[in-house]
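Backbones bend. To wit:
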Amino acid sequence: MVETKDKYAELIVMLSQIGVALSAEKDPTRLLKLILSSAMELTHADGGTLYLVENEIELRFAIIANKTLNIMPSDVVETKLSLPSIPLYINGEPNLKTVAAYCYHQNKSVNIEDAYHHQGFDFTGAKSSDARLGYRSKSFLTIPLRDHENTRIGVLQLINAIDDDTGQVIPFGEERVLVAESLASQAAITLTKEKLILAQKKLFEAFLQLIAKAIDEKSHYTSNHCKRVPVLTTMIADAMNHATAGPLKDIHLSRDELEELSIAAWLHDCGKIVTPEYVMDKATKLEALTDRIEVINERFEIIKRDTKIAYLQKLLTADPANKQKLELEYADKIDSLNESQAYLNLANTGGEFISEADKNKIREIGTKNTYFNGKETKPLLSEEDIMNLSIARGTLNDAERQIIQNHVKITHTMLSSLPYPEHLKNVPTIAGSHHERVDGNGYPNGITKDKLSIQARIVAIADVFEALTSADRPYKTAKTLKEVLGLMNEMKKAGHIDPDLYDLFINEKLYLEYAREYLKPEQLDV
């Protein structure tokens, strides 16, 4: 095959180029195809097969190719060919009958000039395929794929070496064997490297999901949040990458950027691992370790009891003509107490808005009504009770809201402590910016759209939509899809979320696709 110095030089260049290409390829299937096609090109083989070792018990057909049969290097599944795996052991003994299994066990190359006249191996399978396809498999070169520790990870088999001048099938010459073995060595090391990288990625991804699960398990009220935000994030990113019109059509996230985004989405709330449960799970305004509304209800009962005692004592000495008046006064007082009690119980549940008039009424009820605790007379509500019941939105007071908001800073700090490869260096910033607003009024840093990455803006929308549609939050009832979209539309107008991304979210009906999978049927009202 190689007869001149020029051809040697050409061969060296080809091997170098193939080595560079193998090192650059990251997709596992494309890498296998490249290995087989390169081996066929270097040895002038008409066909070939790449086997991979499965569980150390069999050789699985991975990639197959044949120029005469017009089969380009393809995954066996793609070709729809029925090719059973080759067992490495038969009845517990090494399978030395088939050439590929023999090559594996003996850990050496096997070069056969003519399979149809060879007595050492069973070529029944090859002959059967030949008869079915109208082909003749003659010369075989079978080479073990060994990694850096000399562990066999697969077998490369080339079929029918072609003479450069006559186009006839010839045996694989010594030069072709050496070239193929050299390539097989490079390929095996590359495959092992990619396998190790993939294993590390899978471990890392599993670790991310473990952390997210731990955060969700910490509070059963948010048990799905860390799993669902990455789902929404991926949906939005994919839609943006496929956009052909609109302001986002020229923005495209690379595979590395998508990986970076996915990791940030999984870990966006990791700071909540240190947030106290009583804050995360605060279902009512007065809830701490217990809901203090129960204590206030007991005080109401004390006040009602004392009011009744006072009424009965007055009856004992009252003029009969005044008894009806006393009875009406007592009934009015009890009705007023019941009304005040119901009002405070309702205020305790939280909501979207509480007016100044409501706050004044809470204070009036709390200070006007008093109870005797066995030692002294005290107002119905303490200043802390009044402050909590007067919370304008939701159930968290200012101090508790600061604790919750601080989880974003902790997220950034925790994630910044990890050593990232270059393509993941922005994970802490993306994850730590999901509560920023495009108008600069978000937290923790109050940065504007021009300083927020597109990835951070995607996570922000995913986070808001999941939180608003969630049906398991203790401090609010499940909102319908129409209500959520109405609120988010107002957020878009107010500069809370990225308007272009939100329009994409609406126009591509991503909200509906997500809702059908994850929301309750009664929430689907659009």
